[in-house]
Design a protein that fits this description.
With 289 residues, the chain is an alpha/beta fold. The chain folds into 2 domains: 2-19 and 30-110 and 188-285, Rossmann fold (3-Layer(aba) Sandwich), CATH 3.40.50; 120-187, no CATH class. The protein has helices at 10-15, 77-84, 102-107, 126-136, 144-156, 172-184, 202-219, 230-236, 270-285; strands at 2-4, 32-43, 51-62, 66-70, 92-97, 100-101, 111-114, 190-194, 222-226, 239-243, 250-255. The structure holds adenosine-5'-triphosphate (ATP). It holds the Pfam family ABC_tran.
Length: 289
């Protein structure tokens, strides 16, 4: 286990049996996909009450890594995700995707967003919802090749046979899988996920976690995942970025040294529980949490 943090608490570290600080690990070749440097975000900067959401964020994500962002409510998790996806602009600093600004990456549709609400169009079938991003992109969605691709994506999320169903005929978990398929269909390089399973009941959420785990281990897309759920973050992630209370700063970066593939038994291991306890303790130290 390893953890680095701007405000590393030695008491927490010393309690962890096999924790090393990152400076002790030998240098390895890194393939940086997303580079966040000196990012600050202030909302309403010219008003009487500017809100500094992010402060001096330096963080990088390697290709194929699954990184979760956790932290106290309102600490800037969504803001950071939106800055990476160029849905809001940072006030200062830069975010590069493979060395190019995130604005260009968004325009080239290299990024896909997934939100808590499945935002499916209720009058469109599963197939029509999945085809929507391709339609917006100006593709001819009556093209048999495109439809085959969409069918493959629908099958990939386990919804084969539901192509003609309407959203209101599906369960919450199924609707969320349609939303995932809609993001996957244009084969983006990076998944940006903002609490995609927060509205689901615990059992469905577990199933969706396992589903995403399998997809990630299959396609290994670089993923940035915002969550409040520590267990979910540990199960899914290679690395967890913990932000401090607002203004969000990098508080800790915890590498999850649990091998893959992971399955339900992973959640019963000592290592899993140690990570859960460590992260809970880090978050509890923040008085505003
Ligand atoms: N458009 C906006 N205008 C002004 N302030 C905003 C805006 N969006 C977010 N904020 C503020 O910025 C801060 C960070 O918000 P953000 O939603 O990024 O945090 P979060 O960690 O994702 O929150 P939560 O855990 O509640 O989902 C909060 O204080 C929020 O009120």
């Amino acid at each position: 286990m390893s953890s680095t943090g701007r405000t590393m608490d030695t008491r927490v570290v010393s309690e962890m049996p096999s924790m090393n600080t990152r400076s002790q690990t030998p240098p390895v070749e890194r393939d940086v996909h997303i580079e966040i440097s000196g990012v600050n975000k202030v909302y309403n900067p010219n008003s009487d009450e500017p809100v500094q959401a992010l402060k001096d964020i330096d963080f990088s994500i390697e290709r194929g890594e699954f990184v979760s962002i956790i932290g106290p409510s309102g600490c800037g998790k969504t803001t950071l995700l939106k800055c990476v996806g160029d849905l809001v602009s940072q006030t200062s600093g830069q975010i590069l995707i493979d060395g190019v600004p995130s604005t260009e990456a968004r325009k080239a549709r290299r990024l896909a967003f997934f939100f808590q609400e499945d935002v499916l169009l209720p009058w469109r079938t599963v197939m029509q919802n999945v085809l929507l991003p391709l339609e917006i992109k100006g593709k001819d969605t009556s093209d048999p090749d495109i439809r085959r691709e969409a069918e493959k994506t629908i099958a990939h999320v386990g919804l084969e046979g539901f192509e003609r169903a309407l959203p209101n005929e599906l369960s919450g978990g199924m609707r969320q899988r349609v939303a995932l398929a809609r993001g996957f269909v244009f084969d983006p390089e990076i998944y940006l996920m903002d609490e995609p399973f927060a509205a689901l009941d615990e059992l469905t959420r577990r199933k969706m976690n396992k589903f995403l785990l399998d997809i990630h281990e299959d396609v290994q897309k670089t993923t940035l995942f915002v969550t409040h759920h520590i267990g979910e973050a540990v199960w899914l992630s290679d690395k967890i970025l913990v932000l401090s209370a607002r203004p969000g700063e990098v508080d800790h970066v915890v590498d999850i040294d649990i091998g893959r593939p992971r399955d339900a038994t992973t959640r019963t291991t000592d290592a899993f529980h140690e990570y859960e306890d460590m992260l809970t303790e880090i978050l509890m130290q923040d008085e505003e949490f």
